[in-house]
Write a structure and sequence with these properties.
Length: 499
Amino acid sequence: MTGIIPKAINIFICMFFLMTNTMAQRLGIFENENDVGAVLHPGSLAYDQQSEKYTLSGSGANIWLANDEFHYAWKKMKGNFIVQCRANFSGKGTDPHRKLGWMVRSSLHTDAPCVNATIHGDGLTSLQFRKEANTNMQELKFDIKAPDMIQLERRGKIFIMSVAHYGEPYVIEKISDVDVGDEVYVGLFICSHNKDVIETATFNNVRIIVPAKENFVAYKDYIGSTIEIFDLSSGNRKKVYTAPASLQAPNWTPDGKSLLYNSNGLIYKLDLSKKIPQQLNTGNVRNNNNDHVISFNGKMLGLSSASPDGKYNSVVYTVPVTGGSPKQITPGGPSYLHGWSPDGKYLIYTGQRNNEFDIYKIPATGGDEIRLTTSSGLDDGSEFSPDGKYIYFNSVQSGTMQIWRMKPDGSDKTQLTSDEYNNWFPHVSPDGKWIVFLSFMKDVKPDDHPFYKHVYLRMMPISGGQAKVIVYLYGGQGSINTPSWSPDSKRFAFVSNSE
């Protein structure tokens, strides 16, 4: 009899994990799905693991007054959170007032207090809310019509709704003093606004984010990280690896098979087929930061790390891309690496010298450093174009942090962006056509690039011009500090953050 109980327990454990995996395949990041209210036709949820796309179908007479009817995919959450997606109705639909969006509810009762980020079939966009059970819904209407990017954030009793037509910055409305309780239902909804029909919508790039606590200490307290890949043709994000630690700055290897990133001072190689990271040998250089770059020929890796003797907090080293004993290149520091020349002869980096941060280049085998920028303030994020004709960088020399370029000898400096954002880390696509860069909002100081902020990843032609938002992101420092384009210029890697 003694052997029967352990065997039964093993069977139970296997069945539990099988059920859990099956639910994850069907529901994705949500815990459950169901109809709310007396709907005439049952709704449904379909989740495609490969594309990370959700398809939601549902009926329901309305979500209004004190009686809601709709289909809901949800999970329970406590505390602050951010939810975001790109959403579209399927087909022309029957009623122009059909609705989709994000919803936060105190319960699944039809008259529950709630906050809804709502897009209607006719394009009407509104932040709807019911403060108490069995009372009528209220709303704040947006001027924007038919956006497809939807974000809803809770900060205590404050709810912030952000919407945009994909590619454009968010338009924002918020409400205060809405108490739906600490533990709430959070999820996607659809309502046909016609009890006799079923409507369908698709939701891509669905993310539920738990932000850093307000009192977190930068460079001491960290939250979880996800390495993601963005596909330019589809506009879709794909999660490839998640960890509770701080993962930073993925570099794409020239063979297209792996990503290199730093975490806790070490460099890791993530095989994209196996999704299993392996530590890269960097000898006694074990305080690596997120300024690491692979040479254009794929043979060498440049590192920025605190010197083993503790004299400098960041010195530039090189090491074979397969690992080995690093060679120190810069004689002193702080020196933060950002690029190789295409011919492999030079490294370019930001150096702090005499209380100024400027861009320097140095022979890749070591030697005398050459100063390329001389303006007052921070110059950073330098990177060669693939043809070697220009160095792209970010600088505060015009007042805010903007994207610039110059010739390899430091001459002919030209400003490429001039907008309300603070723009960092320009990365040129291998085909030489595009620049992807990170944009902080105006609440961030021009010379700062902190962790855990609402940021945009934007793209523009290499010669400059209108920048388009391509990723709406919770991240910042470590998200895209170093070159991360795929060799075919069709994708790039970045890091998002959440508890």
